[in-house]
């Protein structure tokens, strides 16, 4: 039997990139998938691209808006009958040194990453704790939240905050069979990293024990592990998927 057969998974920020790779991995293991994106058309197109028919739906959502997030949760339950996996993946960057970073740039990143993850965790756990089977929430952090990266005081703060949020939430809802974990990606091959200056890329690769960038599919497999019963006795944990960077 597939690992997520008959279960329903919501993935925010999943119309492309790592989020879409996560959707593909969970769909391959039998899950019903709700693709969530700020752009309704992009969400719908990504859901269709999964090629799993009516097991996939695309929903527009601003993850920094509590009513939007609760609407996504209701839509998932109304369509598929349960909410078993919720992945808080949506994110943006507004990189700049502190001297050049505006308050708006700081607030926007905190709102999407940290507030968005809190809203998703709160809304998903409210449903999951009432289900006999509980559920799994997976929050996507970053190596930037562990070590801090130049020009990312906003992003590093948000991603570090997600780690604390994950552990606190896990303590609150564990009694109801709801697990809350975090996956921490390192340097992953995306359109953004593909455009990185060669000298910067080479410097970063020297920090990685495995000597290469990771692939979006490798993050997706880590999320699948945390989403499924393979990690049934794991909660409040942080799984680093970094190739050994910043050990």
UniProtKB/TrEMBL annotation:
Keywords linked to the UniProt accession: Oxidoreductase
EC code: 1.1.1.100
PROSITE patterns assigned to the protein according to its UniProt record, in alphabetical order: ADH_SHORT
MF terms in GO: 3-oxoacyl-[acyl-carrier-protein] reductase (NADPH) activity
Organism this protein belongs to: Flexivirga caeni
GO biological process, one term: fatty acid elongation
The protein's enzyme class: oxidoreductase
Protein family according to the UniProt entry: Belongs to the short-chain dehydrogenases/reductases (SDR) family.
Protein name: 3-oxoacyl-ACP reductase FabG
Gene this chain is encoded by: fabG
Residue ranges of domain Ketoreductase in the record: 7-191
Domain of life: Bacteria
């Amino acid at each position: 039997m597939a690992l997520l057969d008959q279960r329903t998974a919501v993935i925010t920020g999943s119309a492309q990139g790592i989020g879409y790779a996560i959707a593909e991995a969970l769909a391959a293991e039998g899950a019903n998938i709700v693709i969530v994106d700020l752009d309704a058309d992009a969400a719908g197109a990504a859901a269709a691209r999964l090629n799993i028919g009516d097991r996939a739906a695309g929903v527009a959502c601003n993850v920094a808006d509590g009513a939007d997030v609760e609407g996504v949760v209701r839509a998932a339950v109304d369509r598929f009958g349960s909410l078993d996996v919720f992945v808080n993946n949506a994110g943006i960057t507004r990189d700049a040194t502190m001297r050049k970073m505006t308050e708006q740039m700081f607030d926007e990143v905190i709102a999407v990453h940290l507030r968005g993850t809190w809203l998703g965790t709160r809304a998903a756990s409210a449903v999951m704790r009432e289900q006999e089977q509980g559920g799994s929430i997976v929050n996507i952090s970053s190596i930037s939240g562990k070590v801090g990266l130049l020009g990312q005081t906003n992003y590093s703060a948000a991603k570090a905050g997600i780690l604390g949020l994950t552990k606190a939430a896990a303590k609150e809802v564990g009694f109801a069979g709801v697990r809350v974990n975090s996956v921490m990606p390192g340097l992953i091959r995306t359109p953004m990293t593909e455009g990185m200056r060669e000298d910067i890329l080479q410097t970063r690769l020297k920090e990685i024990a495995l000597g290469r960038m990771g692939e979006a599919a490798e993050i997706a497999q880590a999320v699948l592990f945390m989403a499924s019963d393979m990690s049934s006795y794991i909660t409040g944990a942080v799984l680093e998927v970094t190739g050994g960077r910043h050990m």
